[in-house]
Structure formats: C-alpha cells, structure tokens
C-alpha cells in the first residue's frame, strides 16, 4: 500500500498506482522468477514520474517454462472500479528475441480507430507497454539473458468490470484497459477526466467525424434521447470540462461542435465559466437576473430571481412576466459569443439549452444546421 498523500479541498488523500504499474511489476517479478528460479515476495519498480514502488507479489505459479504472478491494484483514495483487483502477468520463453506483450483474460481488445492502440490489439496503452518492456529488459540484463520473452497480461473478472467503465462506449470489448501515463493514481484527478474526454473525441475524429455533439452529463443524454431521437451514445460527455472539450475539438481539427445542456450548466458559460463545477463559483442567478433585467424584468422580480435556488424557478418568473423568450435569447447569444471566443473562431460552435421542467428553452441560430450535419455523418 502506498504511503504518499496529496491535499485537495482541505482533505488529505492517499495516492495509488495504476493498472499499468501493476502489470509492469507483475511482469518484472514473473520474469525474475522464470530466469533465476528464485521466488519473489516483493518487487520494486520506478514509475514514469520517478516514484519508487515496492509491491507485494501474489498468487505465484511456477511452471517448467513459465511463471505467473499478480499485483493487487491499489487506487488509494480514488474511487476507481479496479481497486482490489489482481493484475496478472504470465511470462514464458519466446521464440523470437525481445519482449512480446499481449493481453489475456479480462483485458479488452480495441475494435475502433482513434485509441492509443491499433484495432485488433490488446487495450494495453503505450506507457504501460513501455513500463512492462523496460522492467522485463532490466531483469534480462541482470540475468545476462539475451533470448526472447512473452508477456501475457490478464485481469480475471475484467470483462464484467469493464461494463462499469467507458470501454464499451469506446469500442474496447472483452475487458478493461491497462492504463496510466505516470504510473500513479492521484485521487479525483481532473486531468484523468479530461483525458477520457480527449480519448473519445480523438476516436470520433479518427473515424472521420467533422462535427460532434457534446453534452455535460445524464440530463443532456436523457434530453437527446427523448426529444431529438438520437442515441445518447452519439454525444460525447464533457462533465464540467466544457472549455477543455471545445479546446480539444479545435486541436483535433473538427469543423463544428454543438453542446446540448441543462440551463443550470449552460447559463454559467454566459458568465465566462467554461469549467462549470460549483467549486469554481455559482453565478447562475446573477447571470439570469442581469439578462432578465436587460430584457425588462421589474426590479422586485429581479430581487425575487436572485433568491431562487434553481434555474427552473428563475424561468418560472420569466414565464409569469412574458419575458422568457427575450431573456433566454439574450443568454444564448452570450453563450455563442463565449464559445466562439474560446476557440478563436477556428470551428463552428453552437448550443441548445433546455430545462427538465419546461423542455427546450433556446438555442443558437446555427444549432439546427449543426445538428443536421452531425446526423448526416
């Protein structure tokens, strides 16, 4: 178990290590036991970012020409679904020189373009592959072995576990991915979430998409399914990272991106908040009140709106005053300006804003044209 911590939002949170680190450590331990015949109870590796790990080696099986062992995944205080699972490496003598790495039980296979590995390959990402190879080669050098070794990574239970991840959505079938860019899991890492968005957008682009549909979360997915008759999987989930999602669309060369979201999220964009998490601020009622006032809402009702707890309740006030269309169109125009400014006009951006209580509220002038292009692809 790791004994390293970070402090986030005043909480002391323990770090963990990735499935990639587990695979590399298990491979190193199995290679050592195969080439020396000596059993290992602990194994040391250094992660990509320079952290030294000493991990317990579990479930060792030594055969005539192979060794299999496992490392237990520890994600620290991060709520990772793989926590506690065993990542196995089976190392055997290879027919050709070098280290050959493949996936076994519970490790997914890539079936769509645009991911870290080519179609048909095991979903063992490039950094974990490098870690596995370097650690096994270190053992070969220490043992003066110049022949080949075959490494098979497996995660029993991984196929069922993968249903709780993004893998089915990304086109990775049959198991989980072996992941990690640093080897270390940082609890509640925002960068990990942003990277998930990037992976899905990169995959869409690699498969020829010029236009993409975005939505912050489940409310948006439900609205898309029930009101536009599009499979929710058509949209890329951005969570709170709306700015980063549009940045990635620009970087990857998309021609256009349309975001469909609940007013509670999208109204923040009108205030220049492209990360909509509440910890960065809550300007919803201020924005609603400002644009409603500009649309003619009476001061006493503006004061009432500022006390609203939800955007739906603020919309109620606008409806009672017959100012809903004008005020919401003002907000939507501001959203359009902010999004266009974010991408520097290098891709077409649009937005559709809805409410769970009132349905479709407003949309940018180009929203339907963008949606049509998305549907045609």
Describe this structure in words.
This protein has helices at 19-36, 126-142, 158-161, 167-170, 190-206, 218-228, 242-252, 263-269, 284-294, 299-306, 311-320, 324-343, 367-376; strands at 5-8, 11-14, 16-17, 42-46, 52-56, 58-62, 66-72, 86-94, 98-103, 109-110, 148-154, 172-173, 184-185, 211-215, 235-237, 256-262, 348-355, 359-363. It is an alpha/beta fold and 377 residues long. It folds into 2 domains: 5-185, 2-Layer Sandwich (CbiD-like), CATH 3.30.2110; 200-376, no CATH class. It has a 5-stranded mixed β-sheet with strand order 6-7-8-11-9, covered by helices on one side. Strands 15-14-16-17-18 form a 5-stranded mixed β-sheet, sandwiched between helices. Helix 1 (19-36) packs parallel to helix 2 (126-142). The longest helix is centred in the C-terminal third of the chain and has 20 residues, at 324-343. The chain is elongated, with a radius of gyration of 25 Å. It starts with a strand and ends with a helix. 45% of the residues are buried. The model has no long low-confidence stretch (mean pLDDT 94).
Looking at the overall shape, the CATH architecture of the largest domain is 2-Layer Sandwich
CATH topology of the largest domain: CbiD-like
Going across the major beta sheet, what is the strand order? 6-7-8-11-9
Tally of individual domains: 2
The averaged pLDDT comes out at: 94
CATH class of the largest domain: Alpha Beta
Secondary structure tally: strands: 18
Residue fraction in strands: 15-25%
Runs in which pLDDT lies below 50 for 5 or more consecutive residues are none
Question: Which superfamily, in CATH terms, is the homologous superfamily of the largest domain?
Answer: CbiD-like
- Determine the number of helices (DSSP H or I, runs of at least 4 residues): 13
Any idea what the shape is?
A: elongated
Q: Please identify the structural class as seen in this structure.
A: alpha/beta
């Amino acid at each position: 178990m790791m004994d390293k911590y970070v402090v986030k939002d005043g909480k002391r949170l323990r770090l963990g290590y990735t499935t990639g680190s587990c695979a590399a450590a298990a491979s190193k331990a199995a290679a050592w036991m195969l080439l020396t015949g000596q059993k290992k109870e602990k194994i040391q590796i250094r992660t990509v970012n320079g952290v030294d790990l000493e991990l317990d080696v579990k479930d060792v099986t030594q055969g005539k020409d192979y060794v299999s062992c496992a490392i237990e995944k520890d994600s620290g205080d991060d709520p990772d679904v793989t926590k506690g699972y065993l990542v196995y490496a089976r190392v055997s003598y290879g027919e050709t020189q070098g280290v050959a790495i493949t996936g076994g039980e519970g490790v997914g296979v890539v079936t769509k373009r645009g991911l870290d590995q080519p179609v048909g390959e095991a979903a063992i990402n490039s950094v974990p592959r490098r870690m596995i190879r370097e650690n096994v080669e270190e053992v070969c050098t220490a043992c003066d072995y110049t022949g080949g070794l075959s490494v098979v990574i497996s995660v029993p239970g991984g196929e069922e576990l993968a249903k709780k991840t993004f893998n089915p959505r990304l086109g990775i079938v049959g198991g989980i991915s072996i992941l990690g860019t640093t080897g270390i899991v940082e609890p509640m890492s925002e960068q990990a979430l942003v990277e998930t968005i990037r992976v899905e957008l990169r995959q869409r682009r690699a498969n020829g998409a010029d236009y993409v549909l975005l939505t912050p979360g489940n409310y948006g997915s439900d609205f898309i399914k029930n009101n536009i008759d599009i499979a929710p999987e058509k949209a890329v989930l951005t969570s709170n990272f709306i700015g980063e999602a549009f940045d990635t669309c620009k970087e990857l060369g998309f021609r256009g991106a349309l975001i469909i979201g609940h007013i509670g999220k999208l109204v923040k964009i009108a205030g220049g908040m492209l990360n909509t998490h509440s910890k960065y601020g809550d300007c919803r009622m201020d924005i609603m009140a400002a644009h409603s006032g500009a649309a003619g809402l009476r001061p006493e009702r503006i004061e009432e709106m500022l006390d609203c707890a939800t955007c739906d309740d603020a919309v109620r006030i606008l409806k009672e005053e017959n100012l809903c269309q004008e005020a919401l169109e003002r907000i939507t125009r501001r959203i359009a300006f902010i999004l266009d400014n974010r991408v520097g006009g290098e891709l077409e951006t649009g937005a559709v804003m809805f409410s769970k209580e009132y349905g479709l509220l407003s949309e940018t002038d180009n929203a339907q044209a963008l949606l049509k292009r998305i549907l045609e692809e």
